[in-house]
Amino acid sequence: MKRNVIAMSVMFVLSGLSVSTVSIASLNNLLVKYNCPTKLHNLSSSITGIGSQQISYERAQNLQFKGDVPPLTPLNLSTYFNSNTKYDEYSGKVSCQYLSTFGWPMIYVSYNPLQSRYGIVVKQTVSEIYLKIPFGLHG
Asked: What's the CA gap between 52 and 37, in Å, rounded?
């Protein structure tokens, strides 16, 4: 009797593992490329710039990146250049960091796309970032 209970328990656990493995294996991924803005604008209440998003091999879409204005930031942001990109897998937020050649405060602008959480950074430069974003379950 005891052996039957143990054998049934092992079979139950193994059958559960095989079902979850099939579900994980059928998860699809999108390759998404984000380009940081090349020109920033200080609107006094926020800093904005137009970047882009390209999903797989589709045409790139323009989108607005936005950030807070740190104290002592000049109105003219022409001395700023891209210095880093960042992705937060839990919120899905894509951020771009900028430094000034004159030592002005560091600036961050970001874009928070819908349905982009739990992705993986595939490639990253100072001005662009490639992500693999999971979507859908089939099977």
From this structure: 8
Confidence of residue 137 (pLDDT cuts 50, 70, 90): low
Pairing of strands 61-67, 80-87: unpaired
CA atoms within 13 A on the CB side of 44: 0
Which of these, 115, 102, 104, lies nearest to 53 by C-alpha position?
115
Helix (H), strand (E), coil (C) string for 70-131: CCCCCCCCCCEEEEEEEECCCCCCEEEEEEECCCCCCEEEEECCCCCCCCEEEEECCCEEEE
Give tens-digit pLDDT for 68-81. 999 999 999 999 99
